[in-house]
Every structure is written in structure tokens, then in C-alpha cells.
Amino acid sequence: MRRFFDRLARVAALVLLAGALPAHAAIDESQLLPVDQAFALQARASGRDRIALDWKIADGYYLYRHRTSAQPTSTGFDAGELQLPPGKRHTDEFFGEVETYRDRLQAVLPGNAAEDAREVTVQVRYQGCADLGICYPPQTRTLKVALPAPDAPGATRAP
Prior knowledge:
By secondary structure, the protein is mostly beta strands. Helices cover 14% and strands 44% of the residues. The protein has two helices and twelve strands; from the N terminus they run ααββββββββββββ. The protein has a five-stranded antiparallel beta sheet with strand order 6-7-3-10-11, with no helix packed on it. Strands 1-2-8-5 form a four-stranded antiparallel beta sheet. A hairpin with a 3-residue loop joins strand 10 and strand 11 (134-135). The longest helix has 19 residues, at 2-20. The chain starts with a helix and ends in a 13-residue tail after the last strand. 18% of the residues are buried.
């Protein structure tokens, strides 16, 4: 019976201690930017062989390299693997050793457009966090990107 009261006393002490901690640990969601403002994404075809993806990342926010990908969902653009620059190494409490991007991320989706392709639909996935200690759920955006016209009959790649 004494053990029971000892445990009860420890639990009560922990509850009292937790109640005495400052309330600043709680984060108000109104402090967070909307995801599309924190990570403003644009895409354009810089040639018939590449689609440039450009994120402007707000101050106090970052994107994860390993959680960033892109692939076409329409026919007419045979894509390779998304080319990402090296990120800044960081030890994350959830993901371990990762690379992150701040301020701006510019990536390239290389590929080959079919001669008759005028537009490509690209599905982009990414995930980022705020320095406040909150991560956004993984995001998926579907973007339509106009392709430049071929330079000459039979051309499939822009210079």
C-alpha cells in the first residue's frame, strides 16, 4: 500500500510541476503563414528539355530535400529525376540527418518533350516547417506548364 501512495505522490508532483511550466511552449496557429505563402512555388519551361521549379521560402521557414519531388502526370514529356542542389545539413528530431533549404530553392526537372507537346502537367510534392517548431503536412501541387514551341520542324529540344 505504501508503494501505491509513493507513486501517487510522484504523479501528483509531476502534474503540479507541469502546471507551473510557462505557457509559451504552446504555439498559436495564427502565427504561421499559409503554406502557399511560406513556400511560394512557380514553374516554367526554360526549354523543351527542362522545367524549372522555383520556391521562394519565407523567413523562418524551410523545406526538406528528401521530401521534395516532381513528375509529369501528362503525356508528351519524358522526364528524368528532379535535380536538386545540395541543401544545408541539419539534424532533425524526427527525420535524423537531413538537408534543408531556406530563402529559395531552384530545381530542374529534365526531360524531352514530344514534338507536338504544347503543355505538360507536373505533380510537385514537398514538405516544410516553421522555425516555431511546427511542420506542415506533405503538400502536393499540380501545375500546368506551357512548353516553348519547337525551333524548327522535327526539333525536340530547345538550345
